[in-house]
Amino acid sequence: MAIVISYCPKCKNMLEVSTAYIAIGTPYEQCSKCKTLIRNGKVNEWKLLAIYEKVYYTLIVTWTGFMFGSVISAVGTYLLMMLLDLKIDDNLILQVAIVGAVIGILICYYFFYELIKESNTRMNDPDYILELKSIGLIESNIDKQGNETGFSMKYPTDNTKAIKGIKLWLGILLMIAVWSGVLIFLLTIILKLIGITISIPLLIIISITLPTMYYFNKVFR
Ligand SMILES: [Zn+2]
Fold this sequence. Notes:
The protein is α+β, with helices and mostly antiparallel strands. Helix content is about 60%, strand content about 15%. The strands form 4 sheets. The protein has a two-stranded antiparallel sheet with strand order 1-2.
């Protein structure tokens, strides 16, 4: 994920250096110097996200858990087999990778769930809602009878622009697929030339992970 540095628009004080691009949290921050409240378009409360943003966040969390879980467990098993001088067992590596992926996803879901819970606790505080309204971050939804039926985000999250570009995502998926194929091909040839036998599931996992990490890092900048 890219590093984000933000400055106060009023006094140019450096606010925060963060590595998170998408996050669930308070959608504003306060300048420590001049106390101005500044909207943070990269962070939003769960309840204020659009449905497709929620789906998107969930997919990212799932993907992150899958990637870390499968790669760490597959590479770990491979290294352990090498270290113990065991015969490299592709099936075992694949099985461990699948279990690792499931555990990785569950761990990520746990933290995701905790974030959503904290977010909902904030949103259930009437004072917090008033504060969001006073900054102009949310506005009340009024029905025809003039009753307040809830509230909605006045400004979309910065990510909205990116998520809406379905073409962009299809393009990225296609690029990941192409580069994964190229990597599998090249690595197989190179490893054969130098005479190294590598486990096939490991080769495939590495070939998919590298371009995925590259493109995800590029998009979340
Ligand atoms: Zn300031």
